[in-house]
Amino acid sequence: MVDRTTLLALTTALALCATGALAQTVTPTPTFAPTPTVTVSPTTVPTPTPTVTVAPTPTSAPTPTATTAPTPTATTAPTATTAPTVTTTTAPTDEPTATEAPTEEPTATEAPTSEAPTEEPTEAPTEAPTATATPTPADVQAVPGGSPPGRMPWLLGFGILAFGAVLIWARRRD
């Protein structure tokens, strides 16, 4: 049978080889995703020429000159006698009736103003700088066949635990 020292040496060598091999296969070489190059080509927007419509100025009509006609001489006609007027009285009614003429509100008509429409000038677009993306830890990809980054500590811990378990087992066996 194998003595305790030989068993301990073999177990230690096996554990160290296992953790070293795991460490070599798990060590990821970070590969970064290609940085996208964003190029912005400036688009030229033609500036529209504002059209200004000018309302025609109203021309005033010439004022007519009034000519006075000669005043005719009036001849007086003989006065006629009038017939005597007959007055009739009507009995008052209980309900007075009042007729009201409908009142109309004057409507105001607005004359069109001759102001030209104002247009605000459009600004030409400015060219944006080329954006370059910096890689973040989420962009780092693992080596194919290996584990993702950040998994190395627990594998090493698992190897140490296995080594400790073998040591405890060897000690109890004696």
UniProtKB/TrEMBL annotation:
Residues 37-146 are annotated as: Disordered. Keywords: Membrane, Signal, Transmembrane, Transmembrane helix. Residues 37-116, 123-138 have a biased composition (Low complexity). Residues 1-23 form the signal peptide. The keyword Membrane applies. The keyword Transmembrane helix applies. This is LPXTG cell wall anchor domain-containing protein. The chain crosses the membrane at residues 152-170. It comes from Pelagovum pacificum.
